[in-house]
Amino acid sequence: AQRVTQPEKLLSVFKGAPVELKCNYSYSGSPELFWYVQYSRQRLQLLLRHISRESIKGFTADLNKGETSFHLKKPFAQEEDSAMYYCALSVFGNEKLTFGTGTRLTIIP
Amino acid sequence: GAGVSQSPSNKVTEKGKDVELRCDPISGHTALYWYRQRLGQGLEFLIYFQGNSAPDKSGLPSDRFSAERTGESVSTLTIQRTQQEDSAVYLCASSLSGQGVTEAFFGQGTRLTVV
To answer: Tens digits of per-residue pLDDT, A34-45?
Structure first.
């Protein structure tokens, strides 16, 4: 069974400082990994997915199969990055999304 | 175009009453999910529908919870004999499946308060 772990429930970072939100997964095959974000009073929405290999709002995430990780990074935090971030996993052929418990990121002005 | 729509947006009910929550997915989306989000907590998976396959009910917390889906359209989540610990935001999401893994689109949620 697939599982996603986000070890940090809360993370506070000063504006301008680097951000790293940790995500580890367990699955024996090749998963698809995603980051979803929920800004205050908005719907949960996709931020980025690893197969796209793109940077969204300055965020990037690299899939490390050796460490089974998919950490979300941004070099310089901005106040508008404050939100709840969820890492999610899915498997081709069984596309149920499994979410981690989420990390609430607060950017300190 | 229309996104995932959930109704009602807010529901206050007395302990012991039954409630029914509705989700209208994006047209053509074969996959539909229900999640629960308690205050200050993460997403808790409840149930997953995929086309005509048997739903994955592994996340339903008790037999008071049930869900149905009519074909590839509307889904209803029913909670019987509600308890105070059922108070949460219930989120529905849908995705276009059968073409590899695709993005899930979420509704705005139903905030359930059991008093």
So the answer is: 999 999 989 999
